[in-house]
Design goal:
The complex is a heterodimer of chains A (401) and B (177).
Chain A (H helix, E strand, L loop, with lengths): L1 H10 L5 H17 L6 H4 L1 H18 L2 H14 L21 E5 L2 E5 L5 E3 L5 E4 L6 E5 L2 E5 L5 E6 L4 E6 L9 E6 L2 E6 L6 E4 L8 E2 L6 E5 L5 E5 L5 E4 L6 E6 L5 E6 L2 E6 L4 E6 L7 E3 L5 E8 L4 E8 L8 E7 L2 E6 L5 E6 L4 E6 L5 E5 L2 H4 L8 H4 L3 E4 L6
Antiparallel strand pairs in A: 1-2, 1-28, 2-3, 4-5, 5-6, 6-7, 8-9, 9-10, 10-11, 12-13, 13-14, 14-15, 16-17, 17-18, 18-19, 20-21, 21-22, 22-23, 24-25, 25-26, 26-27
Helix pairs in contact in A: 4-5
Chain B lengths: L5 H11 L3 H23 L2 H17 L10 H27 L18 H7 L3 H12 L4 H8 L3 H23 L1
Helix pairs in contact in B: 1-2, 2-3, 2-4, 2-6, 3-4, 4-6, 5-8, 6-8, 7-8
Classes of the chains: A alpha+beta (401), B mainly alpha (177).
């Protein structure tokens, strides 16, 4: 019987073995490209003692011609593979088209595909308009609309601190509105700065999220962690969820049929009618979420306090999350996610390493990395990374209806 | 467990030093059996792929701490099989909690060729027994080595092997009749 079992088991193949191997190798390779090797001395503390003892012997050998040849061959064996990519010291180009809007500790910056960068001035944060024609910016009590070259189009001031400005996604012919928070009040103003009015007097602190593909519907959080979808023309509630973990991020799928509410301790997934499809607990720590373009799949940062690593994990926003699929992992904190307009590349902010990682999501996975991110956006290399590292990035352009 | 071959030690040394080609050689040598072992324990293609991937990435993360005088395979297989057992137990628990349809309704599309005879019999075993059968007859470890890999007493391994084989035999006999 045991021989039969052995023969049978060794004949069985896992489905899709070859493709699975190809996918796995791409991930392993990508992870290897960005690993931070342990210092050679630390790794070899014990062998170092033995090596020290042996050095006297080797010294004698080195003096002879055969000894010289031996040393040369050892040096060749431990030289790192010259083809292993290292982080680039500066962002010289984006791997895909479109532009980045980066909210750094020194204000918003625009990064063009060729890597050229422009600060937008002394504002605290910014958000793209559809098609990146304008940027809505806030600082203290002021909200303004700028062109991408920094020209001021209009500005307004309100009594409380303004933040969370988000431009609506209507086509230019109907353009446009900006939802923003005046303290805890949610307000909406037309894209030309007119018609500013409150929508709700007391809401949660998360930035509102316009629903793509449907005009003039905006989602926001109430103070007890409910998610509300409202029609900004009629101000009526379209749906209101049950209370939950107050969200830090609200994200719609491109088709406007799924909404994610990411809180400190949980992730909730809603359909377009406000039904909660599922929810999962999240470990406390750095987090973030982004939808894959034109898809109900999304990528979430999952931090493990036990290992102090951050993972990127793929779920689906359907009636069940499916088996989570592990995409990438690194020690420390991931703090930013942005997906390219064509959906091929994912930007990941790796805070501890002061790097941005660009992960190619298409069939042949690849990782490119750029270091010195804080310094490139005007920050000081002396400042703590968790405060100096850019807080958010959006990759032109938001989903169009 | 025999020590690693000279070739494998060379790949590990090269991978530690940053050589992609050595890493690839190590991967190609060990991936197929790790993936297949995960699949036979969890019987779910997507989960097996994830488990084998995560095991490789975990091994890679710890490569600098790995004692390269020891063979790489058992180190990897320990991660794979333990994760596969955990996953199978968690799935069983989820099924109990959610009362999903019974096995007659379960989609076996992922099982591919693994649908008859020993393969189907293996599917009916508890994960703990599946794991020792896979370690013994696919990966060809001795009971003593399996005990080391799973942190179990050798007697427990032997009894799981015996019970697993008995059940497999009964299932295969029933199918033959």
């Amino acid at each position: 019987m045991s021989e039969e079992v052995k023969r049978s088991l060794q004949r069985i193949q896992a489905p899709d073995e070859i493709e699975a191997q190809r996918r796995a190798w791409a991930l392993v390779r990508a992870s290897f490209d960005t690993r931070e090797p342990v210092a050679w001395q630390k790794r070899n503390r014990r062998p170092l003692l033995l090596v020290a003892l042996g050095l006297l012997v080797l010294l004698a050998a080195f003096l002879s011609p055969p000894g010289r040849a031996l040393v040369g061959s050892v040096r060749d064996a431990v030289t790192p593979d010259k083809n292993t990519p290292k982080p680039k010291p500066a962002l010289t180009a984006l791997p895909a088209g479109g532009s980045l809007l980066v909210n750094s500790s020194k204000g918003p910056w625009i990064v063009h595909p060729d890597g050229s960068m422009r600060p937008l001035g002394p504002w605290w944060e910014g958000a793209w308009s559809p098609n990146a024609e304008h940027v809505a910016v806030t600082k203290a009590h002021r909200l303004a609309a700028l062109t991408p070259d920094g020209t001021l189009k209009w500005a307004l001031a309100r009594s409380k601190l303004l933040h969370g400005a988000r431009w609506s996604l209507e086509p230019p012919s109907e353009c446009c509105r900006i939802a923003y928070l005046n303290g805890r009040q949610l307000r909406v103003v037309a894209g030309d700065g007119t018609g500013d009015a409150p929508l709700r007097d007391v809401v949660g602190p998360v930035a509102p999220a316009w629903r793509p593909a449907v005009t003039r519907q905006v989602a926001f959080s109430t103070i007890d962690g409910r998610i509300e979808l409202a029609d900004v023309d009629t101000t009526k509630t379209i749906w209101l969820s049950a209370p939950g973990d107050p969200p830090m991020q609200l994200v719609w799928s491109d088709d406007g049929r799924r909404l994610l509410a990411l809180g400190e301790r949980s992730l909730r997934v809603f359909d377009s009618n406000g039904n909660k499809l599922w929810a999962i607990g999240m470990p406390v720590g750095p987090s973030g979420v982004v939808f894959v373009r034109k898809s109900h799949r999304f990528i979430v940062i999952r931090y493990s306090p036990a290992t102090q690593r951050s993972d990127l994990v793929l779920f689906q926003a359907e009636t069940s999350p499916g088996e989570p699929r592990f995409l990438y992992s690194a020690p420390g904190d991931f703090g930013t996610l942005a997906i390219s307009q064509n959906g091929d590349w994912l930007l990941v902010g790796w805070i501890n390493a002061n790097q941005w990682l660009f992960l190619r999501l298409t069939s042949s996975a690849k990782v490119e990395s750029v270091s010195n991110i804080v310094e490139q956006f005007g920050g000081s290399s002396e400042a703590p990374l968790d405060t100096a590292f850019p807080k958010s990035v959006s990759w032109c352009c938001p989903a169009s209806p | 467990m025999v020590g690693p071959g000279r070739q494998e030690r060379s790949w590990i040394r090269g991978a530690r030093a940053g050589s992609v080609s050595d890493l690839e050689a190590l991967f190609r040598e060990h991936w197929p059996r790790a993936h297949r072992a995960a699949f036979l324990v969890v019987q779910d293609a997507a989960a097996a792929e994830d488990i084998a991937q995560e095991a490789f990435l975990s091994a890679l993360r710890n490569l600098d701490r790995f004692d390269r005088r020891r063979p790489f395979g058992p180190w990897l297989h320990r991660i794979v099989v333990n994760r596969a057992i955990d996953w199978s137990r968690a799935r069983a628990l989820r099924r109990e909690l959610s009362e999903v349809p019974g096995s007659e309704d379960f989609d076996t599309g992922d099982l591919g060729t693994f649908s008859e005879g020993v393969g189907a019999g293996l599917a009916s075993l508890p994960p703990d027994q599946r794991a020792v059968i896979v370690l013994r007859y696919l990966l060809e470890y001795t009971p003593g080595e399996i005990a080391d890999l799973l942190d179990l007493p050798r007697g427990t391994v032997n009894s799981r092997l015996r019970r697993g084989l008995d059940r497999l035999e009964a299932i295969v006999d029933r199918e033959r009749r």
